[in-house]
Amino acid sequence: MPGKNEGKTAVDWYNEGVVFNKMGRFDDAVVCFDRALQIDPNDAIVWGKKGILLARLGRYDEAIQCCDRGIAIDPQIPLWSMKGLSFIKLGRHDDALACFDRALQIDPNDAEAKEGRDQVLQWIAKQNEKKRTLNAVQCLEEALGCIPDHPHKAIELAERAFEIDPNMEYAWGIKGLAFKILGRYDEAIVCCDRALEINPNDHTAWSTKGSSLGDLGRHNEAITCCDRALEINPNNNAAWNIKGVALGNLGRHDEALVCFNRALQIDPNDADARKNKEIALRKIS
């Protein structure tokens, strides 16, 4: 513990605090600096030293208060960076950025301020990117909820997601599905192709493209797309059903029946697959 107060000057207490600081006895050092400041409350350097120690002890609010006291006495004292670092620890990044900017106004070569400023700007950029991604995802969730009853609204929401991130594969997939529902098959295929450029393993885009090709009478191409979807996800019951329809349109009803049975194994409640199976059975008989 610090010694008694008898006859000690502010400088004595400051020097004793420096010794405790070097020994790693930070709480004792703070006590010494407090006693120095009781004698001379206008010593900006001691306020700064105390602030640095408080920050090291995780007492960031108090550290900021000490920096403010030191800066009020001497506006040029190099405490702005320490204040900024304390604000970072408190999650107050805008305040931290203002401190680092002020430090660099005083000393453009302040390495600590430059590093702190870069750190804050990187954090802000990451937060902005997270917000952008979250907004895009919210648009897509709402767009998906508009399928199949409100395809025009789904397209509008997908377009809004593109404004945030032009490379969102799911936005292209949802837009393609909406175009298919509207009977705009060529546009649906274009959207699916864009989704597949971004992610060639998007099995939903492959099956939607296959369905649109089938609607255009391009049944062999539809089968190829469904096969690709099923390579990626064998449990894509929509792809099994779409493939079965394409096979049926080519007169290959036995193969179509196998596809419909596979779709129903995956989802016994698939009404389309059940209806298509009945049609295939009638064709075979």
TrEMBL record:
TPR repeat coordinates: 10-43, 77-110, 169-202, 203-236, 237-270
Pfam families, A to Z: TPR_1
Keywords: Repeat, TPR repeat
Protein origin, superkingdom: Archaea
UniProt keyword Repeat present: yes
InterPro entries on file: TPR-like_helical_dom_sf (IPR011990), TPR_rpt (IPR019734), Ycf3/AcsC/BcsC/TPR_MFPF (IPR051685)
PANTHER family assigned: CELLULOSE SYNTHASE OPERON PROTEIN C, TPR REPEAT-CONTAINING PROTEIN MJ0263
Protein name: Uncharacterized protein
UniProt organism field: Methanofollis fontis
Taxon lineage: Archaea, Methanobacteriati, Methanobacteriota, Stenosarchaea group, Methanomicrobia
